[in-house]
Input
Amino acid sequence: MSKNTDELFKNVISHAKEYGFVFQSSEIYDGLSAVYDYGQNGAELKNNIKTYWWKAMVQMHENIVGIDSAIFMHPKIWKASGHVDGFNDPMIDNKDSKKRYRADQLIEDRITKLDTEGKTDDAEVLQADMDAALKSDDLTRLKEIIINNNITCPISGTSNWTEVRQFNLMFSTQFGAMAEGSEEVYLRPETAQGIFVNFLNVQKSGRMKIPFGIAQIGKAFRNEVIARQFIIRMREFEQMEMQFFIRPGTEMEWYEYWKTARLKWHVALGTDPAKYQYHDHAKLAHYANAAVDIEYQFPFGFKEVEGIHSRTDFDLSQHQKFSGKKMQYFDPELGPDGKPYGNYIPYVIETSIGLDRMFLLTLMNAYEEEDLSTEERTDSRTVLKLPPALAPVKAAIFPLTKKDGLPEKAREIMDKLKLEYHVQYEEKDAIGKRYRRQDAIGTPICITVDHQSLEDNTVTIRHRDSMQQERVHADDLEKIIGDLVSWKKLLG
Ligand code: ATP
Output
């Protein structure tokens, strides 16, 4: 990370704390590693990102429905899905610092360093070497790569490493009160399995016809070997996943469809398309026959925000095998031979986006430190240029002063608007200061009530991005805000 980007990232993190977006969990107890809480503005922004996703996936697609499955599930599910045996990361310890690392991340950091130094050929060789070792689960080779490339511990500076071992990322706990009768259950490491095991419930109760999708937003838990980069890698996080059930043989077509559709969803937010890239997986997960990541250029490099995976019929077949229940669908449509496609286990395309990573992306993309200095005076502001539909507060209402009936008039306007929008009332400090506070949380417009408002029911609105002001009739506010924050702009 260059000094500027490093500084920018630090500034965004402190801004997130100062303005009630993200706090370290259990902060008064010195925090809990890789666990975060969302504050009053963060919770609003997060909810709005969820709504944008839900609308784009469920509301905009007649053949996609949403569910909300439980975090606890029968432990056999994780055996069937392959997570008990295969959901591992390669870890390595430094014997001097006693610090634990993910072996692949240590190598990735070296690749990023080589890239930033312009040694792209060396970076490519190292990448290929690591990909080959990961693909064949060759832990000895991973260690050799670390040693041969002189990769040292960032804390101790030594290469006194242990062997590379596999570490299972699932959290487990005891289910049931009696010690003898209790059973080990897992906190789900992905929301997807809750969709697979409900596939037939939804298909039958909703009379869904293939192709169709099931979407879900919810918490997932992973005991990540090492926590890094703020809310990029958390131990408790949220996913927005959709499993799209299709006829076998059509997977590549649908894979391409969702790859394009998902990137379009991202770019509709006004994010610079050049900051996005597709990254094909070198090592396919045990369930996938094609997989791509949508990556975003964070200050610390390109990072996965969303994965699109062609999961074949792996999950449903496994659940059929482990539960003994048929996971088949009867397809009445006629095939090329004039006969119905009949019974089969559907194939699946998955889109899986991390809500917290999307939150950070949105914040980073919106954050601007603007120099507003003129010849007469120096001035600046920090503004979140969020898409208005995602803004935590849609409008702020200020009485110009705290007297002469202006607060009452402002509250009257506020009471009407709050039926439809999340609005905020502020009367403390000079108007300029109040503007700055709202800029810092991304409020698209501020409404000021002054003495003239009492006479002709007009108010001044000031726009966040242009800082332009205009006089409008108070009765028009609902429509003005409605047009500004409309989801149509993102979904159209
Ligand atoms: P990574 O390689 O970064 O560990 P992954 O490939 O394991 O991610 P998936 O299993 O594909 O991730 O999960 C889907 C999405 O969930 C990811 O694209 C990411 O946005 C999010 N995600 C995964 N792990 C975490 C985590 N520990 N903290 C926050 N978000 C996460």
Residues 447 and 461 are 5 Å apart (CA to CA). The chain is about 35% helix and 25% strand.
